[in-house]
Amino acid sequence: MPEGHSVHRIARQFERNIVGRTVSASSPQGRFVEGAQVIDGREALEVRAVAKQMFLRFDGDVWLRVHLGMYGAWDFSGEVVVDATIASANGRMGQTNQRGTVLDDGPIMDAAGENSLTSIGAPRRARVRMSEQTTGLEEQNEWPPPVVGAVRLRLLTETTCADLRGPTACALQTPDEVAATIAKLGPDPLVDDLAEGEEQFTATVRKKPTAIGLLLMDQSVVSGIGNVYRAELLFRARQNPHTPGRDVPEEVVRGLWRDWARLLPIGVETGQMMTMDDLDPEAYRRAMAHRDDRHWVYHREGLPCRVCGTAIVMEEAAGRKLYWCPKCQA
Fold this sequence. Notes:
Blueprint: H1 4-17, E1 24-26, H2 33-39, E2 44-50, E3 53-58, E4 62-67, E5 73-78, E6 80-82, E7 85-87, E8 95-96, E9 102-103, E10 128-130, E11 153-156, E12 160-165, E13 169-173, H3 175-183, H4 194-205, H5 212-215, H6 227-236, H7 250-270, H8 281-289, E14 313-317, E15 320-324
Helix pairs in contact: 1-7, 4-7
């Protein structure tokens, strides 16, 4: 499932390519025909990303709410502006690391096809795929591009096409409905005031009997954290995932919020969930290219902890895989 950094990256792509333009809207799949008819011919005025949901406002105060869920993804094609650069099939993009150094020799791909340029959602081969795993830029000769697969919603401007596939939610909302949806979500470090968000998060966690490992995945407690960031945040805090929230020391709870506020922008900028710190350029490039070098505990069950050497444990927690070190996080 896409985590918070992914949805913020999608929103930035909409800001660059769709907002401020009149769109033609259709539902090739046929499951959003009435909604597409309402949007068709309207100008996109604003985009918001909160938690794992995106909200796109059109003139007339019509809002589109999209939640990608486990399998959703956006495909962009045509002239796709990334970091103020027009992307072409042979375009090369700089990639910014955690220290702000531009790696200007092209995007770094890992074995799963993930890179920082176009990756947000569920993995599929496409033209410019905004999914959790990127497939890169591919040559395109036909405009508008042919519909491929089950496209729930197509938004088309004169130069850019955005195709939505497989979302959990794709619905029109009124301004009041949007406000009500957002009100149910926990604080998002890229949306809310950081100090206020810290207070809200800390107060909520400190009164809950639920395990902290579950609370971090609860979008009403904090926005945007998924399975990868949950495991990595807890390890970085050396916090046992099974400790009830109310028993986690306040300074640890506050530290979790501050660490999330630090890691989320890195994920937005790089397109990858980088959770390793203070890497030299060679180690950083290796980590960006290989997931095995990018995380402390996630997806490393049975492997030695990078700190103490104890085998990393994987267990089921509310139907999701939880990775942690039983010694460092005892």
